[in-house]
Specification:
heterodimer; A: about 280 residues; six-stranded mixed sheet; 4 helices; 16 strands; about 25% strand; B: about 270 residues; eight-stranded mixed sheet
């Protein structure tokens, strides 16, 4: 995660990740992780499709914009079965980006590609609200999405009701993270949206992790080791001592990471809004 | 119904083994049947602190592997009849601990004792996770220093996720034991305050043990401080903590800085 970070422009003149101009003949690729949902059909197919319809009626639009994989492992589908199943899913506006666990010989160019090497990220309970247990991360899975919860539209945010302990990672790739307790030194909170900490923030907070530059970090007591928005970061050493231990917010203005206390700086906020 | 208690900290040298011995002895002195178990396989110390190092024949690994019966490995304390020790093996390492063996061993200990106190090794690796695995409650030993507090915070996270109780979705009870609390340094303000530690860790306080020569001397004598000098300040603090573990309400004593002149006059004698 930190490899993609650039120091806030306010602190250093040039983002460090700008490399020398690459030779013209080489391409640059970037790796990016997405959390894909895996759909596993069951037999009899008609009954499974009926269940799916019933479920879609309760959660319309759940699959919109989400990468979906079709898992055919253990199902002896012929090519014609796959083609007709794809048509059924297509008619429900469910787009499949890849197929897993199928015999390669039954797939051709008209069907999504065969994917291998996927790692399980836990099952996703789509209908229920996020349960407190789902929000308690496993500290052993450092760096991995420890608690990736997907809630129904419109705003999937992850609520954590327990203190975040040193060594734990809380991650929400789909929206905000709200922490009711404190974030300990050595803990890490990552969100594609904003981060709200109602206790003390002593660990790291990385908001707008996938480049959302309008994300913000809010906390009631600011002692963060590192704070980042949209990839621009500051470490505690770079931050004005008067801001420490205060309730603050951090936001991005251009490529400058701004931090201000919550109860003042109305003027600065207004100028920021205008710019 | 036996209670299995893990004494843990993450960081080394904060007083886990000393606290295990002192709490175990204090609980036994109040009439409870207690077994203290050393999980520090390869670096065993609890036998020394308990003064039983010359009587170790079989150990935790032997019992966990089913080589011997539990009864053969238990070492009964010579001073307190209802206090027993299950030593660690010095010649093996922590990988020798099998989860199934530990489960069976703890299960047998539960039937024989009122309290099973597991002395966790430092770190967050196999020895520490095995020591906490089957525990019902935890005492987190912390010094009022930033490094110790952060390591304790990490351990609390593991207690909430890696124990059987946590995996069953139950709440793991955790208590803070603040040790090596230096009254002189606290008076000067160059230690973390009790309030700061409690605010960061946010678990209930079980006791505050003052830094004391008595504790060091007791460890070297091979006698838990609650036995060797029962009226000393640390011994009273441990006894109070043991009573709180049994559910009693005991007012918390915060060790006070002694008068500098008195310290100068009487402090040297203890050294």
């Amino acid at each position: 995660m930190l490899a993609h970070l650039k120091p806030s422009g306010h602190q250093r003149k040039f983002p460090v990740t700008i490399a020398a101009r690459p030779p013209r003949h080489s391409f640059r690729f970037r790796g990016r992780n997405f959390l894909a949902l895996v759909l596993k059909p069951e037999t009899p197919r008609a009954a499974w499709l009926a269940d799916l319809d019933q479920w879609l009626a309760r959660s319309p639009g759940f699959f919109t914009g989400k990468p979906l994989i079709l898992d055919l492992a253990g199902l002896s589908f012929a090519r014609s079965d796959v083609v007709s199943l794809m048509a059924e899913l297509d008619s429900r506006a469910i787009r499949i980006i890849g197929i897993e666990g199928a015999d390669p010989s039954i797939l051709d160019k008209s069907l999504p590609p065969l994917l291998t090497g996927g790692r399980t990220a836990g099952s996703v309970e789509a209908i229920e609200a996020i349960s407190p247990r789902a929000a308690t991360p496993d500290p052993a899975d450092q760096g991995a999405p420890a608690a990736a919860a997907v809630a129904p539209a419109p705003v999937p945010s992850l609520m954590v009701e327990t203190p975040v302990r040193s060594g734990q990672t809380i991650m929400n790739p789909d929206g905000d993270v709200i922490i009711l307790g404190s974030v300990a030194s050595g803990a890490e909170v990552i969100a594609s949206g904003s981060i709200h900490v109602y206790g003390a923030l002593r660990g790291r907070a990385l908001a707008g992790a996938y480049g959302n530059e309008s994300a913000r970090v809010f906390c009631r007591r600011f002692e963060a080791e590192l704070i980042a928005v949209g990839g621009y970061y500051k470490v505690l050493e770079d931050i004005d001592p008067p801001l420490r231990q205060k309730p603050v917010q951090a936001w991005l203005s251009g490529n400058d990471l701004k931090i201000a206390t919550l109860d003042q700086n109305e003027k600065e906020l207004v100028t920021w809004r205008k710019s | 119904m036996a209670e299995v208690l893990v004494v843990t900290s993450g960081k080394g040298g904060v007083g886990k083994t000393t606290s295990t011995a002192a709490l175990g002895a204090a609980l036994a002195q109040s009439g409870q049947k207690v077994c203290v178990v050393d999980f520090d396989v390869g670096l065993r110390n609890l036998d020394l602190v308990m003064g039983a190092e010359r009587r170790v024949v079989y150990d935790l690994i032997n019992v966990a592997n089913g080589d011997v019966r539990l009864q053969q490995a238990l070492i009964r304390d010579k001073r307190i009849e209802n206090l027993s020790l299950l030593a660690a093996s010095q010649t093996r390492d922590k990988d020798a601990l099998s989860e199934e063996g530990v489960r069976r061993c703890i299960g047998e200990l539960r039937e024989k004792f009122d309290w099973v106190i597991c002395d966790s090794p430092a770190g967050i690796e196999r020895g520490a996770t095995m020591a906490m695995r089957y525990a019902d409650l935890a005492v987190v030993v912390t010094n009022p220093e930033v490094s110790s507090v952060r390591d304790s915070d990490r351990i609390i996270g593991l207690l909430d996720s890696k124990t059987m109780k946590a995996e069953r979705g139950e709440r793991m009870e955790k208590f803070l034991l603040l040790t090596r609390y230096d009254t002189v340094r606290a008076g000067r303000g160059d230690m973390l305050s009790i309030d700061d530690v409690l605010e960061i860790l946010s678990i209930p306080l079980l006791g505050i043990i003052p830094e004391s020569e008595e504790v060091l001397r007791a460890s070297n004598l091979g006698s838990p401080v609650t036995i060797s000098s029962a009226t000393s300040a640390p011994a009273r603090a441990y006894s109070d903590a043991a009573r709180r573990l049994r559910g009693e309400t005991v007012p918390m004593t915060i060790p006070n800085a002694r008068h500098p002149l008195l310290t100068r006059l009487f402090g040297r004698r203890a050294a």
